[in-house]
Amino acid sequence: MYVEDHDVSHVVDSHHGIYSAQFFCQRFGDDLTASTALLKTCLPDVLAGPGGDHYDEAWQEIMDNAVVMLADEPFMIYESEGIYLVRDGLEWCDKCDWWLSADCDCPHVTTKG
After folding, report:
1. Domain boundaries, the chain
2. How far is 88 from 92, CA to CA, in rounded Å?
3. Which pLDDT score is estimated for 113?
4. Mean pLDDT score of the chain, rounded to an integer?
5. Residue 101 has pLDDT above 70, yes or no
6. DSSP letters spanning 63-84
7. CA 70, CA 57: separation in Å to the nearest integer?
8. Which residue has the higher pLDDT, 4 or 33?
9. Residue 10 parent element (H or E)
């Protein structure tokens, strides 16, 4: 899968609007890893769509507490003008406002992972 070969992958485009979280969970729900209670309560709320009472709160819980497992590697969920999968362990760079990775070509980075 394309995602497994990249540190950060854009997996849901923002054109899905309020349905982005639902689309993400339809695509990656089977790969989510979190507490059983979280998945039993939050995943159905998001899959039901934005018309439900707990859609936004459930999506936030999933983003905060679940990871997506792909090829036995964990990926964090990040949302900003779309939804991204970010290889677990990457650090946020305040200067470039993005994730640092081995591929980072930011001028302020002096060593690469």
Report:
1. 2-99
2. 11
3. 38
4. 84
5. no
6. HHH-EEEETTEEEEEEESSEEE
7. 25
8. 33
9. strand 8-13
The sheet carrying 32-33 orders its strands as 8-13, 82-87, 73-79, 67-70, 32-33
Give the pLDDT mean for 54-73.
92
Cα 62 from Cα 93, distance rounded (Å)? 23
In whole angstroms, what is the distance from residue 77 CA to residue 66 CA? 8
Cα 39 from Cα 32, distance rounded (Å): 8
Q: How many CB atoms lie within 10 A of CB 113?
A: 12
**CB contact at 8 A, 67 and 88:** yes
Task: Identify the pLDDT of residue 2.
Answer: 46
